[in-house]
Specification:
Blueprint lengths: L3 H10 L16 H21 L1 H21 L5 H4 L3 H7 L4 H11 L1 E4 L2 H7 L10 E5 L3 E3 L8 E3 L5 H10 L12 E5 H8 L8 H10 L2 E6 L11 H8 L8 E6 L8 H5 L3 E4 L5 H11 L20 H4 L10 E2 L11 E5 L3 E6 L15 E8 L5 E8 L5 E6 L4 E8 L7 E9 L4 E11 L44 H23 L5 H23 L6 H6 L1
Parallel strand pairs: 2-5, 2-6, 6-7, 7-8
Antiparallel strand pairs: 1-8, 3-4, 9-11, 10-17, 11-14, 12-13, 12-15, 15-16, 16-17
Helix pairs in contact: 1-2, 2-3, 6-13, 8-13, 9-11, 15-16
């Protein structure tokens, strides 16, 4: 059965604001798809009225969509919003560089890891390497009309032409045209099944046996399409170790049609997600190791144990930075002056997900306040992230030594923000922002959960929550002396020694006696400085505060 209601609901809960209900049935029957879509819409409508949490999620998704629309079109003018057909015709083909960059940035290395890929294929095909290119050349249509022309979704020679254009004799000369050969997956599948093909069976066997590289351009494994499962059939019937042949697969459609056994037989497996020329060119450049794909899969790929929902959560092995952005710290120190009862805005972030990118907007972060050397924690509440940052409020209720921490999902460690609040005269407080320290986080065991999702895009606003009143502890004493106090004391000692020496030499001329006077004055001055620093001199606290 096809759980279309659950698929749509899980896609929304995973963070998708727009649900693309395409091919919304198992048999690709338009009538079945329409019935499933209508049933899903009715299900969402009933759940919206009965489930408050579901209603909140839908409202938030609609708000994000409208916010984005308002940002793209600040003036809601129908004339400016509609596209003029004549103007569009003149713009077609002018943004090839942008599309090429999108194709390159979106291409993902599914297997193996980048480090292992460097060992398996440090370079692309060489001048003497024979390369066999197998392409799923199924036909498609832009419309359903009877007179709508059919065309191959990927031209059978698209990869070969791209290789020759970029690396052939007219370019870098890395490959020879004589060492390139192209087959369609339909021809390969028919040959493996013992059926006659346009290319002689002996020729196909020769191409396979002589090839150093076999590159597959796949779409899906639809059983109704001849040749769709040619790659899986080849890996089963013609097993070849990676040490003998390099077998590369590019998924120009979704990348989840191979299982773990199939992927283990490949030298490398890439996700391309597009079938047009810029995507073919990006795949060609990746084949020749011109760049390492920077992207991450936007969907679940069970064959590599990749769950998008897990990867979009905050990464466990990170320490989230916390800071107080709205205060002006005094020069030469980490302190600022506030009044008891003031509220500080504390910002945490950036918070990264399992792919090393900023977490989706709306990811929840929990702030905690505790007094140093006290295991009891006071929750400050939750806040949602915007552009990877979350914020909360801390109220300076009373003097003490406090620590602010943040936790988000599996990221349970943070750089603790240390606040030493010293009560001063006039109801003011001197706040010392200490150097952050790392709060370690335990590393949980990930349990992948397959979901039908796509990459979310959201922009909610963070809602800070007030701080509960903390329990007071005795404040730490402020630092008694610093470099300035030491410099003044040293200057006073030298001045006193010089004056004493001049006065004494006026009556006694013996050098040894004069030196004794200087040393006596210096020792006395240093002893007085130490007593002052330890607070043993009467009135020292008043002098230090001033």
């Amino acid at each position: 059965s096809f759980p279309y209601k659950r698929i749509a609901q899980e896609a929304l809960l995973a963070g998708n604001d727009l649900l693309w209900l395409s091919r919304f049935s198992l048999d690709d029957n338009p009538d079945t798809e329409l019935a499933n879509i209508e049933d899903t819409v009715l299900f969402f409508r009933e759940k919206y009225g009965a489930d408050a949490d579901f209603r909140r999620r839908v409202d938030a998704a609609v708000l994000r969509i409208l916010t984005l629309k308002a940002r793209l079109n600040p003036e809601l003018d129908l004339v400016n919003t509609l596209v003029q057909g004549d103007a569009v015709a003149g713009e077609i083909g002018k943004q090839q560089a942008v599309v090429a960059q999108i194709a390159r940035d979106g291409l993902t290395l599914l297997s193996p890891s980048p480090a292992e890929l460097g060992q398996r294929m440090p370079t692309g095909p060489g001048l003497d390497d024979k390369v066999l290119l197998v392409t799923d050349a199924r036909l498609g249509q832009e419309c359903n009309a009877e007179d709508c022309p059919s065309f191959p979704l990927i031209d059978p020679t698209a990869l070969e032409q791209s290789i020759l254009r970029l690396y052939g004799p007219g370019a870098t000369g890395q490959v020879s045209p004589d060492n390139l050969a192209s087959l369609s997956s339909q021809e390969l599948s028919a040959h493996l099944a013992g059926q006659p093909t346009a290319v002689a069976g002996e020729e196909i066997d020769r191409l396979i046996d002589e090839a150093n590289w076999i590159v597959f351009a796949t779409l899906d494994n639809d059983p109704a399409v001849p040749g769709a499962s040619a790659l899986r059939e080849f890996l089963t019937e013609r097993p070849a170790g990676r040490e003998k042949k390099r077998i590369i697969a590019f998924a120009f459609n979704a990348p989840y049609f191979l299982d773990a056994t199939d992927i283990a037989k490949l030298t490398a497996y890439f996700g391309v997600y597009g079938k047009t020329e810029p995507f073919v060119e990006a795949a060609t450049r990746a084949l020749f190791r011109e760049f390492t794909p920077p992207g991450a899969p936007p969907v679940n790929v069970t064959g590599i144990n990749y769950s998008l929902a897990d990867k979009l959560r905050p990464a466990a092995n990170q320490s989230i930075e916390i800071r107080v952005p709205d205060v002006r710290v005094e020069m030469g120190s980490n302190t600022f002056t506030a009044k008891v009862g003031d509220t500080l805005r504390v910002v945490a972030g950036p918070i990264y997900d399992g792919n090393g990118r900023i977490v989706p907007d709306g990811t929840m972060a929990t702030f905690k306040l505790k007094q140093r050397n006290d295991p009891f924690e006071l929750p400050l509440g939750e806040a949602s992230t915007t552009d990877g940052f979350a914020e909360s409020l801390v109220t300076l209720e009373r003097p003490g030594d406090y620590e602010v921490q943040v936790q988000s999902g599996q990221a349970q460690g943070s750089l603790s923000l240390l606040l030493n609040i010293v009560d001063l005269a006039g109801g003011e407080a001197e706040v010392l922002v200490a150097t952050p320290t790392v709060t370690p986080s335990p590393l949980p065991t990930e349990t992948p959960t397959p979901t039908y999702t796509a990459s979310p895009s959201a922009t909610p606003q963070a809602t800070p929550e007030p701080t509960p009143e903390p329990t007071a502890i005795p404040p730490l004493p402020p630092r008694r002396v610093d470099g300035g106090a030491f410099s003044v004391s040293l200057l006073a000692i030298l001045l006193a020694a010089a004056v004493g020496l001049l006065l004494y030499r006026a009556s006694v001329s013996a050098p040894s006696t004069s030196m004794q006077v200087v040393l006596t004055v210096a020792i006395g001055g240093l002893v007085a400085y130490l007593l002052y620093a330890l607070g043993l001199v009467p009135g020292a606290d008043i002098l230090q505060r001033e």
